Amino acid sequence: MSEFIPPAKPIIGDEEREAVDRVLRSGMVAQGPEVAAFEDEFGRHLVAGRECVAVNSGTAGLHLGLLAAGVGPGDEVIVPSFTFAATGNSVALTGATPVFVDIEPDTFTLDPSAVEAAITDRTRGVLPVHLYGHPARMRELEELTRRRGIALYEDAAQAHGASLDGRPVGTFGEFAMFSLYPTKNMTSGEGGMVSAANPEISRRLRLLRNQGMERQYENEIIGFNARMTDIHAAIGRVQLTKLDEWTRTRQANAAFFDANLQGVVTPPVAEGAVHVYHQYTVRVLDDRDRFARALREEHNIGSGVYYPIPNHRLPSLATYAPGLDLPQTEEAARQVLSLPVHPSLTDADLQRIVTAVSVVAGAGA
């Protein structure tokens, strides 16, 4: 059988190893000059110069971003159920209530009409997810939140470099979080980056990540230890220089799939949107799980299901959504399958995937 094609493949090269060695030789491995440089470079490269604050995980970035934006007990934050649990978890960790609403089917992102229907006098803000690397419906959500006098935040964990109408994701909300986990479009080994709309939020983020202090032993608020190390920042700085090329490769791989895949529903791209294809997610209309098993067992091709259980049905979060019916979310959870789209794929890999999908889809007909 041909070599296994993994669903994701982090790319760590000699430049990243050399950067880590440089930090280790310096003797300064905790949060220091590498973190500061990474924050500045990330902000200038990806979020139009917004101030950025590095933390030790994407989830920490969401949690601290919400706290810095003033979210807390008694508040509600509207979120999608069709996403990784960290989105809802982060709202709950502030003491606020995550309010789950449905997605629109094309982009798998928050349906603005569902958001408006869920707004109450306790709604503090809306937290859309730019799922799979496609921007959420930010035109409508920006207008809606402005009109209703509530805040807009962004979960951009999977969307480094995505944009809408020429405007980068991470520049719409009061804050936006980018994940730097190993399987994301770029990594720092582990970590997160938060872009902030104003100096007040960025200062609170810096306090919250470092035990509530900017100057040593002058603790101003109750805070966390959510710092990024210089080791991780050094990796991230190198990865940032490679991100644009990797994104172009992901987009080229996706274009090949768009033109050649048969037997599945390929992902559309909204007008004005730039999709960065953290995942290339198709819909399998008949027995998705059988389809994935056949790809793996008969063709040695990996795939992923993101996400098989919506947040509102997870044991950890279901108490926030008793009796909730989200039909588009449930349908997506039954049908979605993410195919390999990462930059390590060869032309032969791409053709193997297309052929395998066609064979498996035909066998299931």
Describe the structure concisely.
The chain is of the alpha/beta class and 365 residues long. It has helices at residues 14-26, 33-46, 58-68, 86-93, 112-118, 138-148, 199-209, 230-260, 288-299, 327-335, 347-363; strands at 51-55, 76-80, 97-101, 123-126, 151-152, 154-155, 163-164, 167-168, 175-179, 192-196, 273-274, 280-283, 336-339.
Task: Describe the 3D structure.
The chain is an alpha/beta fold and 365 residues long. It has two domains: 14-101 and 109-238, Type I PLP-dependent aspartate aminotransferase-like (Major domain) (Aspartate Aminotransferase, domain 2); 243-363, Alpha-Beta Complex (Aspartate Aminotransferase, domain 1). The chain has eleven helices and 13 strands. The chain has helices spanning 14-26, 33-46, 58-68, 86-93, 112-118, 138-148, 199-209, 230-260, 288-299, 327-335, 347-363; strands at 51-55, 76-80, 97-101, 123-126, 151-152, 154-155, 163-164, 167-168, 175-179, 192-196, 273-274, 280-283, 336-339. Strands 1-10-9-6 form a four-stranded mixed sheet, with helices on both faces. A four-stranded parallel sheet has the order 3-2-4-5, sandwiched between helices. Helix 2 packs parallel to helix 8 and helix 9 (288-299) packs across helix 11 (347-363). The chain starts with 13 loop residues before the first helix and ends with a helix. The model has no long low-confidence stretch (mean pLDDT 97).
